[in-house]
Amino acid sequence: MTDQDEVLLGVRDLRTEFRRDDGDALVAVDGVTFDVRPGQALAIVGESGSGKSVTVRSVLRVLPKTARVTSGEARFRGRDLLGLSEKEMRRLRGREIGMVFQSAMDAMNPTLTLERQLTEHLLWHGICTKADAKKRAVRALGDVGIPDPEKRIRTYPFQLSGGMRQRAMIAMAMVTEPALLIADEPTTAVDVTVQRQILDLLAGLKDQGTGIIMITHDLGVARYFCDDAVVMYAGRVVERAPTRELLDTPSHPYTVGLIGSSVEVGGRGLPLAPVPGSPPDLTQRPEGCSFHPRCSLAERPRCHTEQEIVTIGPGRQAACWKVAVHA
Ligand SMILES: Nc1ncnc2c1ncn2[C@@H]1O[C@H](COP(=O)(O)OP(=O)(O)OP(=O)(O)O)[C@@H](O)[C@H]1O
Asked: pLDDT digits over 15-64, tens only?
């Protein structure tokens, strides 16, 4: 089997724009490329507004009306998701691609019991018969560690604690046995103990061969859970590497700053403190490297005119020509 055969999701040169009222286009995602393989987790890290969510929303085709993907490819199991009909995408989302978000309250329907939500989800996707749906739903809740699932299945999301709700959302995402799971800050709103339990649950999925994309602010979570990482800045990937290498020996000046400003205590990263300065207004992106106005190493004219991708090693690239000079 070649490397290429093993790619579950291959995103290439993805570009997504928002149309603004003043007519200007805001390029939120600009040329993003990454691969996710079965049984592997990819972290997408970066400051707020760097384009992490818009990237995965573009892949899932759940963008606000004002946004559109203007170019690129998102090949999932051989099919380009960006070329599928909306009907085909509806079949795929929630079935072959599961989704877990920061807040289960936003992702689940507060007016339906867990039983209704889980069984309707299974039946809509044609996973099993009505007779089997409840059994599978109870099993899914048990699998994510919800005690007494036969009883709990009759509750509404708001009747559960935050941690239990998050588990129920993961049960929803897992019940169809998706090949790919996209998790957008799944542990941000829960305490450390629940965070660990949720990561262990997701690790179980990974062991079964599920590919995972994890958006996270928490470098400790990325280190603990993710095989590879991409760092985004102003809509672009500025560095990609196996996670441990990226965190131990970062290359791009932005990654260095990001890690330098994050304190990892006992393997858990605190939320990232911002690198001095602020990201650019995406309607007026600086020429060349978008990070140059904040970069202490920036040199004229090269950093102001070009952004070069440098390959540092296997699976490692950084969007900074100075990396090659210092390597
Ligand atoms: N609904 C929207 N309308 C207009 N622009 C938007 C909208 N949503 C996002 N954007 C633009 O896209 C950029 C990327 O947003 P995105 O939500 O992907 O960032 P993020 O990295 O996920 O941030 P966070 O960590 O805060 O969730 C933002 O900086 C903003 O300029």
From this structure: 999 998 888 889 999 999 999 999 999 999 998 899 999 999 999 999 99
ipTM over 0.95: yes
How remote is the CA of residue 322 from the centroid of ligand 1, in Å?
29
Which residue's CA is the nearest one to ligand 1's atom 14? 51
Query: From ligand 1's centre to the CA of 127, what distance in Å?
Result: 34
How far does residue 171's CA lie from ligand 1's centre (Å)? Answer: 28
Ligand 1 centre distance from Cα of residue 123 (Å): 34
Name the pTM for this structure: 0.90
Q: Is the CB of 18 under 6 A from ligand 1?
A: yes
pLDDT single digits (tens) 205-233: 999 999 999 999 888 889 989 999 999 99
Q: What is the 3-state secondary structure (H, E, C) of the chain?
A: CCCHHHCCEEEEEEEEEEECCCCCEEEEEEEEEEEECCCCEEEEECCCCCCHHHHHHHHHCCCCCCEEEEEEEEEECCEEHHHCCHHHHHHHECCCEEEECCCHHHHCCCCCCHHHHHHHHHHHCCCCCHHHHHHHHHHHHHHCCCCCHHHHCCCCHHHCCHHHHHHHHHHHHHCCCCCEEEEECCCCCCCHHHHHHHHHHHHHHHHCCCEEEEECCCHHHHHHHCCEEEEEECCEEEEEEEHHHHHHCCCCHHHHHHHHCCCEECCEECCCCCCCCCCCCHHHCCCCCCCHHHCCCCCCCHHHHCCCCEEEECCEEECCHHHHHHC
What per-residue confidence (pLDDT) applies to 325?
60
Task: State which of 27, 44, 45, 48 you would mutate to test the pocket of ligand 1, scoring each by most atoms of that ligand within 8 A of its C-beta.
Answer: 48
CB 283 near ligand 1, within 6 Å: no
The mean pLDDT value of the chain amounts to 88
Residue 50 Cβ < 6 Å to ligand 1: yes
